[in-house]
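Input (structure):
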């Protein structure tokens, strides 16, 4: 409650929470009903839909890696606001993993295979874990940058909204808003513990070597398992939907060079208005997620 909030500088202040710094972990309870189309994830298209199976498969292990790489440095952070942001970030990522696990069960029940990208990416993450903790954190900052740009696409891409399953869209919308809310946290930790541009460059190289192959490889294998690799006409349609002029991934790829600028900061991605618009649509009483958002009152009281 607002009356119990004390300023961070107060010597008697209790630790701030994630909700008090605008990063509230929201508990969701998504249900995924049967849908008629096999490729319900995007555009009724195998290539595009299997990419979303890959995304959902890799989020739980990926987000665990993000959390661990930040947790390693948490005790070195003395700024109470950043400590609260870390708490909010940890809570949000943990809950994202939980709901993606449920979506992955749903994919499995429909004969799709999120376990394959999960296995491949866990192998890549184990290689990243051999590097120094600050390089692992740099990798997290790079992946959070791209995730934040993916999040913008989840919220704004009209073809995605028009062709994806309505229930699954709710999960992506919730995940996207929270990714934007916490997009600066890992990077602020990285800066506070002395992270450098050289480490960011190294992180991009590490991700190209250890993460791009399992992601692309598992996507291709899912297509092969599905007997869809030779379906040229459909695959051309999927490539256009993902990489064409207004393709779902086109803007995400364009954002990659930003991360390597010397003065990069995630807040340069201006998303405040987008976040405000979607929080209003999703989380208010009677909003799109009123049935799924199970701790709405607690979040409102804690904010
Ligand atoms: Fe997440
Ligand atoms: Fe994240």
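Output (sequence):
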């Amino acid at each position: 409650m607002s009356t119990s909030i004390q300023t961070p500088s107060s010597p008697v202040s209790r630790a701030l929470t994630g909700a008090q710094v605008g990063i509230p972990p929201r508990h969701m309870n998504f249900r995924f009903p049967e849908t008629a189309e096999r490729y319900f994830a995007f555009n009724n298209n195998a290539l595009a839909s299997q990419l979303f199976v890959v995304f959902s498969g890799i989020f739980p292990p990926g987000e665990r890696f993000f959390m661990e790489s930040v947790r390693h440095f948490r005790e070195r952070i003395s700024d109470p606001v950043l400590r609260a942001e870390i708490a909010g970030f940890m809570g949000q990522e943990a809950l994202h993993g939980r709901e993606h696990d449920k979506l992955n069960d749903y994919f499995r029940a429909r004969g799709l295979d999120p376990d394959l990208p999960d296995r491949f990416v866990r192998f890549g993450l184990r290689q990243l874990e051999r590097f120094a903790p600050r390089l692992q954190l740099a990798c997290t900052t790079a992946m959070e940058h791209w995730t934040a740009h993916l999040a913008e696409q989840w919220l704004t891409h009209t073809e995605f909204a028009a062709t994806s399953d309505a229930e699954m869209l709710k999960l992506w919308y919730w995940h996207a808003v929270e990714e934007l809310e916490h997009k600066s946290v890992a990077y602020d930790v990285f800066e506070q513990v002395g992270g450098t541009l050289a480490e960011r460059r190294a992180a991009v190289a590490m991700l190209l070597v250890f993460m791009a192959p399992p992601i692309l490889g598992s996507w291709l294998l899912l297509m092969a398992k599905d007997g869809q690799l030779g379906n040229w006409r459909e695959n051309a349609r999927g490539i256009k939907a993902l990489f064409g002029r207004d393709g779902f991934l086109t803007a995400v790829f364009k954002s990659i060079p930003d991360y390597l600028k010397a003065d990069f900061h995630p807040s340069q991605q201006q998303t405040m208005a987008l976040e405000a618009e979607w929080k209003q649509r999703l989380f208010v009483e009677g909003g799109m997620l009123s049935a799924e958002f199970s701790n709405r009152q607690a979040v409102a009281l804690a904010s």
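Notes: The chain has one domain: 42-302. The domain at 42-302 is CATH 1.10.620 (Ribonucleotide Reductase, subunit A).
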